[in-house]
Design goal:
16 strands, alpha/beta, single chain, Rossmann fold, seven-stranded mixed sheet, four-stranded mixed sheet, 16% strand, globular, 2 domains, Four Helix Bundle (Hemerythrin (Met), subunit A)
Length: 352
């Protein structure tokens, strides 16, 4: 049977973008309307929308919004195109690590540069392409889920870190897409979710999604994974990704590298689930992936209240870390599962 997720994270409607406000989950589940390009830039930067594939679609929508705004400024066609491309390049800077953002914005830039239409026609073409990317994301995730389900043992306990579910994509999810597809075939599967400090996406969002869908989930703190691995309570790990280098090195939410090391020590397979748009073949290794440094408040405060002294304490808050390819058993994509050696398997998949 096919698993039906109840969540659609982001959707283009007429002349605005409608999205789930992920900053208020699990206290509220509400949608907000984004009506300007700068609003979208801030929604991405401030993690109202988050998760690499969802950020990509948000960026694509943002270009439509900028185009609509520029259309009201009485620009000639050439000036409109030049200004819109500048806005598109600016949109890419809202989150530097997730390559899906750059990929989706570049897809819109292609539309702009290749269009033979007038300004109104360009905006229409951008809308069509944005909706196309949106719909393709769900289908891609379902394919990732189906390929991934093939490597999930019967009755498996699956550990995941951060949120790579429907709320990190347009719908269904990458890592949680694997779990959803596996659960559709075997409802004895269960999930362990790391809380994922400092923003608790695992606690706030992953558990919310799985509980909504009726999939058994146990919440643990980030430091507990080795304990449960040693006790034989974890059978495999599946996480998402924000950028994958040509050699398979993978950037994901901070703490993923630690999970991968623990999984390797305990002989537990560690998988990445991500669309091909997350693979950046322009960079050779994970050393080249830019790592976003986020606000100190994310570490020093929880729910607006300080959890440490606010003076005399140094804070460093990288949003992501890079898991070396040697620790990864497979990269689950919409075209199948890539295996080591990743330099070869990644190059081959992009030749198809």
């Amino acid at each position: 049977m096919e698993f039906k997720s109840k969540i659609k994270t982001i959707e283009w409607i007429d002349n605005y973008s409608k999205m789930v406000d992920q900053t208020v989950i699990p206290y509220e589940y509400k949608f907000i309307n984004i009506t300007s390009g700068d609003e979208m830039f801030n929604a991405i930067r401030n993690m109202i929308v988050r998760g690499a594939p969802a950020i990509g679609i948000a960026g694509a929508h943002g270009i439509i919004l900028y185009a609509q705004e520029l259309a009201g400024k009485s620009l000639d066609r050439e000036s409109f195109i030049n200004e819109l491309i500048k806005k598109a390049e600016y949109m890419k800077t809202s989150r530097p690590t997730a390559v899906n953002l750059m990929w989706a914005v570049d897809k819109q830039i292609e539309v702009i540069k290749n269009s033979k239409s007038d300004i109104a026609g360009i905006i229409k073409e951008l809308k069509i392409n944005g909706i196309k990317l949106e719909n393709e994301d769900i289908e891609i995730n379902k394919k990732i889920g189906d390929y991934g389900a093939e490597v999930v043992p019967k009755g498996a306990a699956i550990l995941t870190h951060c949120n790579a579910g429907a709320l990190a994509t347009v719908g269904y999810g990458t890592a949680l897409g694997v779990i959803r597809s596996a659960y559709a075939k075997d409802n004895t599967i269960q999930v362990f979710a790391d809380e994922t400090r400092p923003r608790q996406q695992g606690a706030r969002i992953t558990t919310f999604e799985l509980a909504m869908d009726g999939i058994p989930v146990t919440l643990i703190t980030d430091g507990m994974c080795s304990y449960f691995m040693k006790k034989g309570m974890i059978d495999m790990v599946v996480v998402g990704a924000d950028r994958i280098a040509a050699n398979g090195d993978t950037a994901n939410k901070i703490g993923t590298y630690t999970v991968a090391i623990a999984a390797k020590y305990h002989n537990i397979p560690f998988y990445i689930a991500a669309p091909l748009s997350t693979i950046d073949i322009s960079i050779k290794t994970g050393d080249e992936i830019p790592i976003e440094e986020r606000s100190h408040d994310e570490v020093t405060h929880i729910n607006g209240k300080p959890v440490c002294p606010l003076s005399g304490v140094n804070i460093i808050n990288p949003g992501f870390d890079v898991t070396p390819h040697e620790l990864i058993a497979g990269i689950i994509t919409e075209k199948g599962i890539l295996r080591p050696e990743y330099n070869k398997s990644i190059a081959e998949i992009f030749k198809q």
